[in-house]
């Protein structure tokens, strides 16, 4: 417990330490944390040798200390990560302020050229997609027109077929009527000849 409290007190110094001494405080905290972890490993071994009635309480105590130290280790790493990001941002800001740009600065023209090329590639891709969509639309419209044309042709074929069917029926009726008229004519001629024969026979 005493070592954990010492580490906690050192953690409080981190926020108030200057840039030159903060690394020393971090190293001191890390060394104390490593020492505590080493002591906890020995305590775990000793707790496993305790009598059964005391072993559970000893193990719980060691686990609690281990949890507290792990929490301190995480806090230290988070502080170091934030410090690293802060220092990196400060370096970048100082480099940006100290840098002098000219009209022929190659470091600035290269990213601009890459950006222009990327935008041009995107525009070409968009145009290609528009052309592809337009071609697809024209193909679909052509298929619709062909479908309408095929429907009209099919209707005309049905109409012609119906007309042909009607014409065939009419022709058959005419042929049948002509055949009947032929027999009527022949029958009439035969009757007329018979009447003329009978008249001549009786009159003579």
TrEMBL record:
Primary location: endoplasmic reticulum
One Pfam match, given by its short name, reads V-SNARE_C
Question: Where is the protein found, in the record's own terms?
Answer: Endoplasmic reticulum membrane; Golgi apparatus, cis-Golgi network membrane
Which InterPro entries does this one have? Answer: GOSR2/Membrin/Bos1
**What CDD domains does the database record attribute to this sequence?**
SNARE_GS27 (cd15863)
Function description: Involved in transport of proteins from the cis/medial-Golgi to the trans-Golgi network.
Protein name according to UniProt: Golgi SNAP receptor complex member 2
């Amino acid at each position: 417990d005493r070592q954990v409290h010492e580490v906690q007190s050192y953690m409080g110094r981190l926020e108030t330490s200057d840039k030159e001494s903060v690394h020393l405080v971090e190293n001191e905290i890390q060394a104390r944390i490593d020492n505590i972890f080493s002591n906890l490993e020995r305590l775990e071994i000793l707790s496993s040798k305790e009598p059964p009635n005391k072993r559970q309480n000893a193990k719980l105590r060691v686990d609690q200390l281990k949890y507290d130290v792990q929490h301190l280790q995480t806090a230290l790493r988070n502080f170091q990560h934030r410090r690293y990001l802060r220092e990196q941002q400060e370096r970048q800001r100082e480099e940006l302020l100290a840098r002098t740009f000219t009209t022929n600065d190659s470091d600035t023209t290269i990213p601009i050229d890459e950006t222009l090329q990327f935008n041009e590639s995107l525009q070409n891709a968009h145009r290609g997609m528009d052309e592809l969509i337009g071609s697809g639309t024209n193909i679909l419209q052509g298929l619709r027109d062909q479908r309408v044309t095929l429907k009209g042709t099919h209707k005309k074929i049905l109409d012609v077929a119906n007309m042909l069917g009607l014409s065939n029926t009419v022709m058959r009726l005419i042929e049948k009527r002509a055949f009947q008229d032929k027999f009527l004519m022949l029958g009439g001629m035969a009757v007329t000849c018979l009447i003329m024969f009978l008249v001549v026979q009786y009159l003579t």
